[in-house]
Amino acid sequence: xxxxxxxxxxxxxxxxxxxxxxxxxxxxxxxxxxxxxxxxxxxxxxxxxxxxxxxxxxxxxxxxxxxxxxxxxxxxxxxxxxxxxxxxxxxxxxxxxxxxxxxxxxxxxxxxxxxxxxxxxxxxxxxxxxxxxxxxxxxxxxxxxx
Length: 146
Prior knowledge:
Layout: E1 9-12, H1 14-17, E2 23-26, E3 40-46, H2 49-55, E4 62-66, H3 79-85, E5 89-93, H4 103-109, E6 112-115, H5 117-121, H6 130-134
Parallel strand pairs: 2-3, 3-4, 4-5
Antiparallel strand pairs: 1-2, 5-6
Helix pairs in contact: 2-3
């Protein structure tokens, strides 16, 4: 496996991704910018509290993290509840399906491990490949969180 020297930030149009929304793939949620508002963000970051704070800087349609194996007291997924409270759909992919810190691996191979209520309302199902599922959702019909 070859390691990238620079963190990934890849923006995919609907035509490139097959998803009916702009998709931003990042190794770290800290790489999200104001230009990403309204996007689906697939991040390699853990789903902890600090990641939620970065995700809340801009309104997004869906944010995906790595569950990082769960962590003590579910710390690797704590962002899901915080984002739910803010009206943001959020999910994690399993650390056994995608490398932590590798957004492209989450995009290409990630399997959903957890989701908040808003993500569940989109139909995200545990164990299902993230990318395949995202291609079924009509994100244009979802209101953006404020």
